[in-house]
Amino acid sequence: xxxxxxxxxxxxxxxxxxxxxxxxxxxxxxxxxxxxxxxxxxxxxxxxxxxxxxxxxxxxxxxxxxxxxxxxxxxxxxxxxxxxxxxxxxxxxxxxxxxxxxxxxxxxxxxxxxxxxxxxxxxxxxxxxxxxxxxxxxxxxxxxxxxxxxxxxxxxxxxxxxxxxxxxxxxxxxxxxxxxxxxxxxxxxxxxxxxxxxxxxxxxxxxxxxxxxxxxxxxxxxxxxxxxxxxxxxxxxxxxxxxxxxxxxxxxxxxxxxxxxxxxxxxxxxxxxxxxxxxxxxxxxxxxxxxxxxxxxxxxxxxxxxxxxxxxxxxxxxxxxxxx
Length: 324
Prior knowledge:
InterPro entries: Aldolase_TIM, MJ0674-like, Pyrv-formate_lyase-activ_prd, rSAM, rSAM_sf. Keywords: Iron, Iron-sulfur, Metal-binding, S-adenosyl-L-methionine. Residues 77-205 form the Radical SAM core domain. This protein is an alpha/beta fold. The model is unreliable at 9-14 (pLDDT under 50). Helix content is 28%, strand content 17%. Strand 9, helix 9 (236-250) and strand 10 (255-259) form a beta-alpha-beta unit.
């Protein structure tokens, strides 16, 4: 998220030993039943996630929504792998190609406190779906050690309610994408069946877990949900239908973040209709529709956001402990 405007540390020496779901993995709607504890597990799982968590980048991100980034930036932790295969993914180096480093639960706790020491306004897990079960004990331990900043869960929303409920009481803010209203677009561009069917239920579950938004005195969201939507070329009508559902279902109890940063990168060239930048007119049509149906709580992007300059460099910064 870049250039948005409104539409209307504590140390401890305890060690964490991660215990997570054993046996075949069915954490997400893919239900691929892969045994990720075996050497071939990450090859057989459709997300390619293995036994251990992998992280590609840890940094302060200044360009999230203002109530997430605040003055000092969100403490982003970019997890490797993904259960979608979006042909236009700007983070394909880590989502599809798997760039990243293995970490254990104790290291994840350390990372969270290191982010707080850097001034992070929140801890933001980016694309954590494939490791949702492995996040439970690190988050519990971080809370026990005195973690006070909000925890943000930033995902593609292709999730199962039962997996999300593993995080009850541990996540403060949900930041899901809602990519498509038409399930056929999910199959075409992200390679998944029934995207909206699953994502809409996941978002309803997230809302049930957090409720209406709450902010602290600095304007940082400490509880609630922001739903992001990236407008695609030629698909502004689908975006409007998606807005109708979101606003009709949640009204002003959530924030909606409309993004214009689409770039025809990676494998977008395989689809001529989206192998071009989004036009200003297409984005304005979606913004006008949001206004027409009464969306007041949300964000829009301004300026030239469709630039590779805004894509993070996934160089492993701050992932490993000093000396590793």
